[in-house]
Write a structure and sequence with these properties.
Strand content: 15-25%
Number of strands: 7
Helix content: 55-70%
Order of helices and strands: HEHHEEEEEEH
Distance between the termini: 59 Å
Radius of gyration: 19 Å
Largest sheet: 4 strands, antiparallel
Amino acid sequence: MNFNDFRVVSVIFGAAVYLFLLVFVPLKTNFVLKKAGEIVIPIKKKKIFLQILIMIFSALLIFLIWLRDLGIFTDIVVCLVADLGCAMSLNEISMNRFCGLYKNGLVGNGHFLAYEQILSLQDFELDSRVLIVSTEKKSAEQFIFSSEEEKKSVQKEILKRNPRVS
């Protein structure tokens, strides 16, 4: 296989993964929403302009390989970066309209966090609209709300639904 053939395969593979993500992520969103249950407190939606731009530029990155001779390893890295950007942005775009506190957990930042996974809630000192949620996976998720009141109502509801949270 010569270098030109490899570039064609890279573009086709990168584009196939991109298209797979376009189909798979919305299906995953439906699965997550079924797991989340009924909505308790809806959260104001974020603007998704940046995520749409990332989606567009991810597609352009894949086709950059077709136009430029970047080298075999660079082609692979560019495809992986483009597909990763697509996955992250598409996840946020598809979950954005469903952000909120649900019967079984919290939906925001492009994913679902079940109450059982939440260990503690902390306020962010620099911004009163940010809630830091520590999870069982030893990670911390930041949820940004449109107002401090919205954050406090969600925080209060999480504490009510999961008393072990500190």
